Amino acid sequence: MLKIFHSPGTRGFRVIWVCEELSVPYEIEPVNFAAEYRATPEWRAMNPVGKVPVMTDGDMTMFESCAMMQYVLDRYADGQLQPSKDDATYAHYLQWCWFAESTFARPLGEIVNHRREFKPELDDVVAEMKSRATACVGALDAAMADRSFLLGDTMTAADLSICYAMRGYRRMVSESLPANVQAYFDKVTAIPSYERAVQADAKTGERLKA
Ligand SMILES: N[C@@H](CCC(=O)N[C@@H](CS)C(=O)NCC(=O)O)C(=O)O
């Protein structure tokens, strides 16, 4: 069975959401997010740079949340939540999947890191990262002007991945989103698997506190 090593509120949410949407069985192993734990040899053996999440499937261990999503899709989704490789939308499926982590979530992650490591004296860096994340939201607003989901009428894992990052944007940069993005975010997070993922994430927090 898939095991997702997850700290509440972090990128493992993406993989949990995909599993919930596909009804793929998985279990969550709560991970203490404290820097001291992530620096231990035990955790570094799972993730060599001390980040979360990690996922195992039998004796396979991997890091990188979007790679995990893709692994679940390719192994267990039977064609759901992604276009086939010969579909006209496939290139843009890849584009938005990579954009979600490499371009959109990255400046958001830097805001968290700079606040934690350097406190307020690096306000300029935080402002720059907010501006980069906001440019991504602008790109999404333009893209969503003429469609229901990123690839048109069909929801894919790219939508879940982007909307995971959007949660961070709303928390860290701005609650108010441009109209097209707001409607899109509301639509994607209204699917029942989103609430199940939120509950699974919250339960992970409770298990860590117990
Ligand atoms: N690209 C990686 C990023 C992983 C990442 O930055 N995870 C965050 C939590 S969401 C983390 O562990 N941050 C701790 C740190 O960077 O020190 C992924 O998608 O898995």
Count of distinct structural domains: 2
CATH topology of the largest domain: Glutathione S-transferase Yfyf (Class Pi), Chain A, domain 2
Number of helices: 9
Order of SSEs: EHEHHEEHHHHHH
Small molecules in complex = glutathione
For the record, what CATH class of the largest domain applies?
A: Mainly Alpha
Strand order within the widest beta sheet = 2-1-3-4
Strand content: 5-15%
Query: pLDDT below 50 for ≥5 consecutive residues: which ranges?
Result: none
Q: What profile does the largest beta sheet have?
A: 4 strands, mixed
Please tally the β strands and state the result: 4
Second-tier CATH architecture of the largest domain: Up-down Bundle
Rg result:
17 Å
Tell the overall outline. globular
Description:
The protein is 60% helix and 9% strand. It is of the alpha+beta class and 210 residues long. It folds into two domains: 2-80 and 193-209, Glutaredoxin, CATH 3.40.30; 90-191, Glutathione S-transferase Yfyf (Class Pi), Chain A, domain 2, CATH 1.20.1050. The chain has a four-stranded mixed β-sheet. Strand 3 (54-57) and strand 4 form a beta hairpin. The longest helix is centred in the middle third of the chain and has 29 residues, at 90-118. The model has no long low-confidence stretch (mean pLDDT 96). Glutathione binds next to helix 4 and helix 5.
